[in-house]
Amino acid sequence: MFTRSATVLLEENAGKLVNWLNSFDAVLTDCDGVLWVYGDVIDGSVEVMNRFKEMGKKIFFCTNNSAKTRKELLVKAQQMGFNVTENEIISTAHSTATYLKQRDFNKNVYVIGSEGITKELDAFNIKHNTVGPDHMTGNLADYLSTRFKLENNVGAVVVGFDEHFSFPKIAKAASYLNDPDCLFIATNTDERFPMPSMVIPGTGSLVRCIETCAERQALVIGKPNVSICAHLIDDGTIKPERTLMIGDRCNTDILLGYNCGFQTLLVGTGVHTLESVRRWQTSNDDELLKLVPDSCTDLTKLPKAQARAFINSLEAVISDGDGVLWLNDRAIAGSPEAFNALTSRGKKTFICTNNSTRTRMSLMEKACGMGFKVTVDNIISSSHALAQYLKDMGFDKLVYVIGREGLIQELAAVGIKYLEIGSDDMKGTVKDMMNTIDLNDNVGAVVVGFDEYFSFPKLTKACSYLMKPDCLLLATNTDERYPAGEMILPATGCFVRAIEACAERPAKVMGKPNKEFCAALLKNGLIKPQTTLMVGDRGNTDVLFGYNCGFYTLFVGSGTNSLQDIEKWRHSTDQELHKQTIRRFFSKNLQKYKQSCTQLLKLDKKEARDIIDTMETILCDADGEELPVSVHPHSPRIFNCLRERGKKCYICTNNSTRSRDAIFKKASQYGFQINIENILTSAHTLAHYLKDLKFFKTVYIIGKEGIAQELDAVDIKHTKTGPDILNCSLKEYIENIRLESDVGAVVVGFDDHISLPKLMKALHYLEKGEQCLFLATNTDETYPGMGVTCPGSGVIVRSVEFGAKRTATIIGKPSAYLCSSLMKSGELQPETTLMIGVLWYDDQQIPRTSETVNALVEQGKDVYFVTNNSTKTRHELWLKARAMNFSINESNIISPTYSVASYLKAHLLEGKAYVIGGEALAKELTAMDIEFFGPGPDFIERSLADTVEMVDKETSEGNIQAVIVGFDEHFSYKKMLRACNFLHNNETCIFLATNDNAVVKYPHRSIPDTGALVAAVETCVERKALIMGKPNRAVADKLINEGLINPERTLMIGDCVKTDVVFGKHCGFSTLLVGTGRYQWKHVEKFLEMKLFQYVPDFYIPSLGDFKQYL
């Protein structure tokens, strides 16, 4: 009734309140913060809930509290006077146990939580660990070598609220989660608990900590996940539109209501207040505000005088065409009359469309035929704008067009030549196509508009022309889909994204939302932004276009987006929502980097043998998809030689065009000595992924026979592969399209018959949401060969993802699915030994590193050691380096503990610092006479209530002006409680972290690093720490500002891409990655494949010691 309006009920009259009460039959309510706070009932809550029940309304208590069982919650509620039964209580502990039971889970569960979870697990006979304290005793080295023990049969990690949260628990959870088959479940992600004057870190803070360390996302069982109350909806107990959700927390309770389609009521007795809601409604998030129109209120409900005043303030009105004025060939009711009335009142009216299938003249004729009074000069079209752009720049070459007649007619009108358009279907194999492809040397631009005959050959030609850096890439628009009733019709943007991904270049977009689209009108003074209204149906083109131009914007709900979308954007906490960011590719930097790697990797034979001898397992890529068609010289001999030396050798390919059996036969024919079990293919893995899920529906395939054959082998139904071309008009095709009713998965692999009909069907099936899986064999963008760029599976995947607004689950490389069974069985160890560091590992020097460093010093280079290690002081690090024969001064060592102390010396004018950290941090603070407390063990010894009372007293009486987080093996819930309250109650309190390294990985376990601890505190206090270590450039600012180093003449050497390489890039240094830590060349290749260029160094070498030969 008051949808998304944040109406204050107490300000409404009695009649409206009665209507509101009659608008729902069921009530779901949160507990903590709504019915009670801690152990105290909130005044009036008992009477209201019991009265709801007396009125015949169904009531349910829906809580994210996992500390109690349903029975225990029932006892608590009844003792407070609530009239409720056990079946009317929905709790996350019970829901988690039910989830595991429904999956026939038969392993052990590692629980971070309380007895509420374990008792619910016991009720279903699911085995688990004993909950309670698990504190760190002694030092970390002793703990890991003598007391750190992992159970063998753990198949799930469950995280709930745990007042005994500790470093050992984080380490164990992350270590279990190293197994990709281990489930990761969170009861909820509440950041904090509602308390009148305290901040109590909630489960979400603990979950974030584990996620950061494990580098995995948890499955959240509780609110706002729909699954927590899905059973009530599915069995008809409640009807969403007749259900009220009451809560005190917007990002769980209210969001659950939104997700389920319930009415929602926020109460001010818990976490969020009306002030918070009002602040969100006027969010200053620029990217979200761009998508929020000025008029998302129903203008028809405004008083007529107010509406007329708004219209009179305008001088010009620009309206979209499709979705606003017409749909296909039919005018939207009332739109001609409204448009003409504005014209007759002296307003300058324009139709502004991204439609590139028609010329301006054709669009004018269409509009006039529907009754719109408009001239050709008042039509702004993307095809006309594109042609004018090329004319104005004096373009004199040929244009390769992916598009329709409207585009080429506009080009012809300004004298620009182009290649013929029309169907260009795939005939024969990729090899055949590449042998016969005809490329015109005089093409100087590729232009992309809507093309219902979009095909693999067109994609290949476009990307091949774009290999020339001076070839223009222009797009008429980037609309994802067109409004077409119940159908999902892929639009130009899908094609553009596919070409951008393959060509590794962004297109210049001529249509909306590009401001240049109406530059001529603005330049000539025909319209003034402050008195112009943009009318549209699409947020990320029409409304965004208006924003970019400074126009007023009016959103209409007759096309692509709805008011519900607008409200979702307005209130979303997702900072990345609908950002229209075009990928940027740095081809020159990448080429330079590749050349450097070739030069540095010329090792001598002995070094090469040493590297090979350390390997136990070899995973070897084969071809791309169908390329190359012949065996690489000497490769069978090398492969077989490795097998003879006792190496476990696998062929690991993303090729989805062939079955595993076919690839085995091909490899055998080429002379590779290999068993079929040692071939890992994306198609085979994908089929078994679905089999393991007990998938029983039909699979829609965009791909080749390899996928189909692997699905057949495990008895999974699928659609036919092969051509599916548009052999009639698009309108006729839509009217006669044949869709399968039982499709439960869309699988995308390499498909040389990709076409608009295939994209259309895929998007239609994926509109089912979670009911339809979205899988991709791989995301390889290109397969180079024979002078042309051959698009790979990734191009198709990105196109489908863009149109579906969903991300595919990748089965092939770089996903771990491809070899997870080998890792699980122990056949494949990710690393025999993982060395962490550039110069040393723990107390062992990496071979030849001191010689390399000393040689650099002797050549007059300024050498600095920059470390994120916060377990040692700068002096201790210097002593360690000297003992390993490094010739370096103490002043040339930059450590985060020293940086933190120096920062506080300059900024902490009074008060004390609270430290989560170790002895090194304490020593550096002491050396600079900074008062602090905190290091060492600090656990909850009595009850949580006693600890809360103690911290509350500390917060009010203490003068804590800084909170510092470093590595702390004694990290505990109590330390979190203290830190969070010091920060919450003092907005000026300094919040520092030594670094944000998240995890240290060993072969069989993971150790949380400082970043995981920082993440836990940040999540609770909703503040970001100032990071004093890498990759923050503040670490090097002093050296740069004092002129001690010149960024352009500085090389950053490191073993971690996320700290060392990113740090170097932030500072403007050259970067050299060494492979003696966590990241090796294979990881760099993965970053290149995934376009994560921020992690790609300028140079790579296996070990810094290998660099000595170049000095």
From TrEMBL:
UniProt keyword list: Hydrolase
Gene3D superfamilies reported in the protein's UniProt record: HAD superfamily/HAD-like (3.40.50.1000)
One Pfam assignment: Hydrolase_6
Taxonomy, superkingdom: Eukaryota
NCBIfam families: HAD-SF-IIA, PGP_euk
Species whose genome carries this gene: Glossina morsitans morsitans (Savannah tsetse fly)
GO molecular function terms listed in the Swiss-Prot or TrEMBL record: phosphatase activity
Gene Ontology CC entries for this record: cytoplasm
Name of protein: Phosphoglycolate phosphatase
